[in-house]
Amino acid sequence: MPVARVCVDVPLAHLDRPFDYLVPAELDEQAQPGTRVRVRFAGQLVDGWLLDRAEMSGHDGKLSYLERLVSPEPVLTPEIARLARAVADRYAGNLADVLRLAVPPRHARVEREPAAAAGAGAADGKDAGQVVAAAGAEAGTDAGPVGADSGATTGGSGSGPVVPDGADGGVGDPGWRSYPAGPGFLRALADGRAPRAVWSALPGEDWAARFADAAAATVRSGRGVVAVVADSRDLDRLDAALTGRLGAGRHVALSAALGPARRYRAFLAARRGQVPVVIGTRAAMFAPVTELGLVAIWDDGDDLHAEPRAPYPHAREVLLTRAQLGEAAVLVAGYARTAEARLLVETGWAKEIVADRATLRARSPQVTPTGDDPQLARDPGAATARLPSLAWEAAGAALKADAPVLVQVPRRGYLPSVSCAECRAPARCPHCAGPLALRSATSIPACRWCARVAAGYACPHCGGRRLRAAVIGARRTAEELGRAFPGVPVRTSGREEVLATVPAGAGLVISTPGAEPVAEGGFGAVLLLDSWAMLTRADLRAGEEALRRWLAAAALARPASAGGRVVVVADGALAPVQALLRWEPGWFAGRELAERRELGFPPAARMASLTGGAAAVADLLDAARLPEEAELLGPVPATEGQERMLVRVPRSRAAALAAALHTAVAVRTARKAGQPVRVQIDPHDIF
């Protein structure tokens, strides 16, 4: 009797393996690899995925039968099953957890719809394009990006350099001609090859149009595309660009925000081969595209690409692994560049696509810091002023020229943090010690943690009752600038309301990072305020993240030849500010990577974070047979009642570390250890 190998949907590490079940005669035809099934496991009915069929089992005992077939639709392709296993192994996780991220929940009504209707509904412009962040994933074996042959020039069977130089040759839009290697990259895609590239976009670049060009070239070769972005605004922009380039009905978008029916309809359209291109947020990483030829990711440094659910994969690494397993082309793109992307270039696994200096100078705005010596000589107060005179002058000149002004503020709200006006001690909630904040000019101080109102607040240090602003948010900034420039429209863009575009003409836009709108014709001036809030964060990626946010905002300014100016309120001697001034994200990424090599931090090394109770973490480490090269760092306090231990190994020992930790977790789950331990490989936030 035929045997089905099933991955049971049970989140226990010691059960992370396929189990054999007999296939009843009535299910023999429909119970095929990739289908959802229900099986009896440990006395209970549980869901599972049918991974494979075999004529006989290696199990000597008695086998149970499949209880029933949930659906005859083969939702799990062999390619995605292999990718999911690689992701689980990379992150010391379980296959069932990854498959839960990769395959959306079933929607029976949508599944019964005719195939043509499903494809048409999923590819409908607005239906497919209006999306938000979704569940996603990450992977990347060490034999992948860095472990690959450093001399490799293609990811497939083609020959020639990974990003050959040369003229466009009729392929693509003139936009790619701004980069010497750009037309060659498109030509390689159209020829069916698998180039791997790290692209640094120019200021003002229509990156969505460039992605659409790359997708069109790949589709022309008869292959499919998966493109991933961080949030809904970027997804809407890419959706519009692809609709204009490929036409309606040629792509779908995957996102949890679509709702169960529309998301599953889009997933089925890709699975059934009705569309060649899938775009989306993290969820799109596992999209079952037929004959995958290109994987692309925009702004891989955005923390929205990091999956918050076990096994906590990152979108960039999932795509790199998928490209490695499927011999597909890769495009890692952004205005900024991460240390991970820099590593791909330094090892030769990918080639960079950058513009020459002349083109960069012609497209860049004029960038000026306020904390260097010449500025301090003209304005001694610039060292402490939140808006130095240079920033006021830049904003005033842009408004006078009837151009909009963008002001980037790191914090949202009105006054998200206040302190005692007498002794400057931070104002804390008397009940939970949370930070007090003001929501408006007339509101009463309230706690940001427990929401209790502190109407009669008195400083416990000096008894003072007056409060002053410690941190100024976007709404207070908008209020101040509105008074400074009367008669000028003031708009805000943030979590509560995100603006996609703003009209041309004089106006002020106050935005938090990541919510900056696009202005018609570009912004006349961009002011980057409160740089200390980003640069002084206790985070390994503080400088990298600050530069990423600054470049994203500065890229929206007009070129210097058209009067575009960027003012960053920071010391010009700082490395991130220097990279912004020269618009050299590659230089800064190389500097960051060199420092991390010296200190032994990712991506130069692999690091695992173990978080849990002290006894549980110690028990896990006792059960783990760590590689000899492993270093233990910590423990340090984490959340209340928990501690965190870091385990570091060289990149070459990453697989051994993940396997050892997964085995140790399996030992603890098998003996029903009470306290769980959260295991994260290369977490986005190490500290």
UniProtKB/TrEMBL annotation:
CC per GO annotation: primosome complex
Which cofactor is essential here? Zn(2+)
Region Disordered: start and end of each range?
140-175
GO BP terms: DNA recombination; DNA replication initiation; DNA replication, synthesis of primer; double-strand break repair
Q: Which InterPro entries match?
A: P-loop_NTPase, PriA, PriA_3primeBD, PriA_3primeBD_sf
Spell out the molecular function terms from Gene Ontology. Answer: 3'-5' DNA helicase activity; ATP binding; DNA binding; hydrolase activity; zinc ion binding
Q: Which residues form the Primosomal protein N' 3' DNA-binding domain?
A: 5-104
Q: Which residues bind Zn(2+) 1?
A: 420, 423, 459, 462
- Give binding positions for Zn(2+) 2: 429, 432, 447, 450
Task: Give the coiled coil ranges.
Answer: none
According to the lineage, what is the superkingdom?
A: Bacteria
Q: Where is the composition biased (Low complexity)?
A: 140-152
Task: Return the cofactor note field.
Answer: Binds 2 zinc ions per subunit.
Keyword list, A-Z: ATP-binding, DNA replication, DNA-binding, Hydrolase, Metal-binding, Nucleotide-binding, Primosome, Zinc
Give the multimer and partner information: Component of the replication restart primosome.
Stated role:
Initiates the restart of stalled replication forks, which reloads the replicative helicase on sites other than the origin of replication. Recognizes and binds to abandoned replication forks and remodels them to uncover a helicase loading site. Promotes assembly of the primosome at these replication forks.
Family membership: Belongs to the helicase family. PriA subfamily.
**Name of the protein in question:** Probable replication restart protein PriA
